[in-house]
Amino acid sequence: MTRIRSILSEAPLLSEVSVSGWVRTFRSNRFIALNDGSTLENLQCVVDFENFDEATLRRINTGAALTVRGTLVESQGRGQKVEVQVSQLEIHGDADPESYPIQPKKHSMEFLREQAHLRIRTNTFAAVMRVRSALAFGVHEYFTRNGFYYFHAPIITGSDAEGAGEMFRVSTLDPLTPPRDESGNVDFGEDFFGKETNLTVSGQLEAEAYAMALGKVYTFGPTFRAENSNTSRHLAEFWMIEPEMAFYDLDANMDLAEDFIQEVIRYVLKHCEEDLAFLDKRLEDEEKRKPQAERSGMGLIEKLRFVTDQPFKRVTYTEAIEILRNSKPNKKKKFQYPIDAWGADLQSEHERYLVEKHFQCPVILFNYPAEIKAFYMRLNDDGKTVRAMDILFPGIGEIVGGSQREERLDVLQEKMQQLGIDEKELWWYLDLRRFGTAVHSGFGLGFERLVQFATGMGNIRDVIPFPRTPQNAEF
Amino acid sequence: MTRIRSILSEAPLLSEVSVSGWVRTFRSNRFIALNDGSTLENLQCVVDFENFDEATLRRINTGAALTVRGTLVESQGRGQKVEVQVSQLEIHGDADPESYPIQPKKHSMEFLREQAHLRIRTNTFAAVMRVRSALAFGVHEYFTRNGFYYFHAPIITGSDAEGAGEMFRVSTLDPLTPPRDESGNVDFGEDFFGKETNLTVSGQLEAEAYAMALGKVYTFGPTFRAENSNTSRHLAEFWMIEPEMAFYDLDANMDLAEDFIQEVIRYVLKHCEEDLAFLDKRLEDEEKRKPQAERSGMGLIEKLRFVTDQPFKRVTYTEAIEILRNSKPNKKKKFQYPIDAWGADLQSEHERYLVEKHFQCPVILFNYPAEIKAFYMRLNDDGKTVRAMDILFPGIGEIVGGSQREERLDVLQEKMQQLGIDEKELWWYLDLRRFGTAVHSGFGLGFERLVQFATGMGNIRDVIPFPRTPQNAEF
């Protein structure tokens, strides 16, 4: 059994081939467009209807699974170089055109989300998921080549001190009548892990422990947010990539993040040419149906090259605030959230203004106010900013958030006390500062945001196989 | 900053180097053994104590973080080819010998488990986790090279029909006073996902949906079992690899599984030579302390070559039962579970007898009784066996479990009905048989079992960074 990708790229003319896949279309009782998932392209299989009985031909419907055997010949028709002259044909599974939902016509994305087990049989989703797979391999390949170790952070966590968002509780207690302690509260001491546990929101803190021994590590695993956000940018379950490096300061961290994203995008530009060309065309068609003002102005591949072909602009938060404050949209009150003063948290509209209008290149903002950032970020000598950095991309805004970590035990303890974070919860995290502490840094990148960027898909639910969102855990 | 691995392998003599890491030992107030995690080997850094003040030298303790600068020269001492003549030395973080737990002496594995954030600073755990990382990359590399797509199965699942084991509930309901429905039960309609949800035990069913469009896919993600098993072979949270292939029958599935395991083991033999040599020696030392009867008889690398250098023996379940029934230990009543009749489930003792004594090579057992296997396995024409296969390895028993899947809608429906599995729960899984069904197969491999096999570690808690087991979700 040969896959269509290799038949199209390397099988010699006149060779006998055997190929299995699913019917995309069947034209003129003669031309089967067969797809096996190995490539976007279909293999044209030509049946001479005189050689096959009527009953067999009637079963060749969109979605049916077949194996065909025959001779590879030069195609007489347009649209393909080669085709198979079919000598044998076996039907494994039918797809009744009356009931099969994935017919060769345009389906709405909403409809396809309800058919998430079948939507992968469309060109769009197959292309997106092949690019997703290639991006994931590009990530592993990049880090491996650069001396990082892959680190599996725990998914179930007993700590709730990270503060990155609302968490899902994990339990085996009887949900109706949980055991209670003396004060009448749920007795989590009776639970599976002997304490209250949640799904992780980030593997960073544990990755720090490993970086402080192996030097350079990265996580790539699922993380969770129990936030009731029904938007096209949020998932309750998503995959995150979190590199963490000992002896890296914020500058080295920014260098790495920039190089990493550029290299991973280059990887898919190289390995997914055909799927990206299809998705580029798809986005172009979609954009045409939008009002002029809402169009992005850049094609998909153009946007990818925008990221790979120029250095990212590095700007301090303070500089960015000045730029925004004096910007036209701010003065003309076009921002939903006007920028008045230093200390404001930036919204997506501000990030997009900086990237798309002002600098017209990817932007790294750094040295944010301590107040709006997490407890573990390294305090600058000014006492009010921290060594945080966010990378902003066209179209999607923030794609990476990172920082140099606070390596000084006393400063970290003071910060935790201010924020009411219990030292007992994070005794082991403080140990990393007690014993052999050093400058270290890392960042996090939401994998689905990266897939959205690389595929041009507007809704994050369409770049993960089976999305989990409020009120939805089907499949 | 250069990493020690590249200094030892490629830096020219007399070059100036700058290297950061942690002190493993400091001998004679002169010789620092510095490790940065990039390799098992330490870099010897020689300080001339006349150039450094007493106070600085006193801070060079095991575990302290340093950066040294100096000249790379040929080493005069034994044990290393090169060393650094230190000209500058900067101490980033101290490690007080009175309180730092990881001193250069033998620690018990139990003690190190309690210090899971620091145990990675020992040679053994650093070697294990580097091999773990390499194995993971070997897995991705193998599947990518062979035309598979990486598929992220959902972690939170609304289905409890898979029946692979006890599950963890995922919820955001108030645990003390959950909302109730009219009949007084917990109203999961009010929960985050609008229904009761659990952590997945397997991504197989979802992977089947993707295989039936992309052809060949694999999962590599965390899976969960809420089983109260406090053994050296079980974790509540572990990583699983599950390939799934359309148009593969059981024979093709066995061919793939065998080739996959051999190639992944070859990958680490090639890329982790130094760490494996260390772990081989470690296992040898450990074995020496055991009574003769309990020793494995094979060294670590010998065991890896045992798997890569010979074809796996394929035996039907029925043949295996005959062999076991007539075996010496069975006749002499040495098995804890004697083998009397066809239909018995095989225990670890039987699996090890077949691999280690009878065949003396890895064994694939196939065609198991339907009664002892899962509902989705393809029924053979004999009506009593299914196209299941297990791969058995020396030392650890079952490492892979797989099957050809039941592709016939009516047979699958009948089986589900017999077992009381609600069709409504798995409507989408049945759809895969309704539309374009075909022969397909897959298998699952517990990643930590593979890491145990490749590293020779006796306890599964020592091959995952932060193990989750009953009563334990620390860190």
UniProtKB/TrEMBL annotation, chains A, B:
InterPro entries: Aa-tRNA-synt_II, aa-tRNA-synth_II, aa-tRNA-synth_II/BPL/LPL, Asn-tRNA-ligase, Asp/Asn-tRNA-synth_IIb, NA-bd_OB-fold, NA-bd_OB_tRNA
Coiled coil: 269-296
A Pfam family it matches: tRNA-synt_2
Main location as per UniProt: cytoplasm
Domain (Aminoacyl-transfer RNA synthetases class-II family profile): residue spans on this chain: 129-465
EC number from the UniProt entry: 6.1.1.22
Gene Ontology biological process: asparaginyl-tRNA aminoacylation
GO cellular component terms given for this protein: cytoplasm
An example molecular function term from Gene Ontology annotations: ATP binding
Domain of life: Bacteria
Location(s), subcellular: Cytoplasm
Keywords from the named record: Aminoacyl-tRNA synthetase, ATP-binding, Coiled coil, Cytoplasm, Ligase, Nucleotide-binding, Protein biosynthesis
Catalytic activity: tRNA(Asn) + L-asparagine + ATP = L-asparaginyl-tRNA(Asn) + AMP + diphosphate + H(+)
First-level EC class: ligase
Assembly and oligomerization: Homodimer.
Similarity section: Belongs to the class-II aminoacyl-tRNA synthetase family.
Protein name, as recorded: Asparagine--tRNA ligase
